[in-house]
Design a protein that fits this description.
There is one protein chain. By secondary structure, the protein is α/β, with parallel strands linked by helices. 43% of the residues lie in helices and 12% in strands. It is built from twelve helices and nine strands. The protein has a five-stranded parallel sheet, sandwiched between helices. Strands 6-9 form a two-stranded antiparallel ribbon. Strand 7 and strand 8 form a beta hairpin. Helix 3 packs across helix 12 and helix 8 packs across helix 9. The longest helix has 37 residues.
Length: 323
């Protein structure tokens, strides 16, 4: 009778032990798969304005790549004066279907517009300083290098090349700052206007997103939120609206930098791109002005402190999306 009792219990113990082994193996396998996922090669295309393009103080997209690890490659094609839209919807007409006259006060914005094609820019440049032109530009400014840069910063130029040739996993969309500066629209609610063409920031951005999906269907788009809440109050709201309309991921950088319009005592000044401490200076400046020499460009801080700070924030917020 004793032996029978043991024989009945034995299979149960075997099954229980096997179940434990299977559970442990499943955990180990899951951990192994996650480790492979975390260490996978990731290619990021960063598209933006002069803010991420950088200057003497470096550029934060490159620093983000370093912070995320050796397996992450960041390609930064951001451009000074870069815009999403190529006009203003209030200026749309039969003769000017995209409202390009809205950029007549600053033609570099139009020449640096990402939602224009190379052919459209070639046409624009061929008409410059003629009776058919919407604007004029000093001929000496249009060097061969600048012309090449403008031709490449288009949806079917450099962006298309990276999407089709570089196996891009994510596009970080860091656009919008210059889109606020159209005629009298700076800091205005007009930025929240949505059109079905490229005459608004959101309409042009949606057009660009469609091109990204066309060229690289598996590439995910991530909107990089503006670095501050106060300096251009409608910019981050427009970015949120764009994310809501398209279902694209967004991270809200403005919630983490602390770069506000709060007034503080300077205690120093910017000199040749470096902050020099001087307690005798009691001028009132904003927190943002303390961080950025011109109140706009982190790259103008030649020490690199502003870019490093931004890079840490971007990297942490990106990590929460891509992993």
């Amino acid at each position: 009778m004793k032996n029978r009792a043991v024989s009945k219990k034995y299979p149960i113990r075997v099954i229980a032990a096997a179940a434990v082994v299977i559970a442990v193996l499943a955990v180990l396998f899951s951990a192994y798969r996650r480790q492979i996922y975390l260490s996978r090669d990731i290619n990021i295309l960063w598209v933006g304005t002069s803010i991420p393009a950088g200057d003497a103080g470096g550029d934060y997209p490159s620093m983000v790549g370093e912070l995320l690890g050796d397996h992450v490659q960041v390609y930064n094609i951001s451009l000074s004066c870069g815009t999403a839209r190529c006009g203003a919807y209030e200026y749309v007409s039969e003769e000017d279907p995209l409202g390009m006259a809205g950029f007549s006060h600053f033609p570099r914005y139009l020449l640096s517009c990402l939602s224009l094609s190379r052919a459209e820019k070639e046409e624009l440049l061929s008409e410059i300083n003629t009776s058919d032109s919407l604007f004029s530009v000093d001929e000496s400014y249009l060097t061969e290098r600048r012309l090449s840069t403008y031709y490449n910063f288009t949806w079917d130029g450099e962006m298309k090349t990276y999407l089709t040739d570089y196996d891009i996993d994510y596009v970080v969309y860091d656009m919008g700052y210059n889109d606020t500066d159209v005629l009298d629209y700076e800091n205005s609610e007009e930025l929240l206007t949505v059109t079905d063409d490229r005459s608004s920031y959101i309409g042009a951005s949606e057009f660009i997103f469609e091109k990204i999906a066309e060229y690289s269907p598996d590439t995910e788009i991530i909107i990089a939120g503006h670095y501050a809440r106060d300096d251009k109050p409608y910019l981050w709201q427009a970015q949120e609206l764009l994310a809501e309309d398209t279902g694209v991921a967004i991270y809200k950088t403005w919630e983490y930098t602390g770069w506000t319009d709060e007034l503080i005592t300077a205690g120093g000044s910017w000199q040749d791109g470096y902050w020099v401490e001087d307690e005798t200076i009691t001028d009132q400046i904003t927190v943002l002005e303390r961080w950025l020499p011109d109140g706009t460009h982190p790259g103008y801080d030649r020490s690199g402190e502003a870019n490093r700070y931004l890079a840490q924030i971007h990297a942490e917020l990106l990590r929460g999306i891509i992993y």
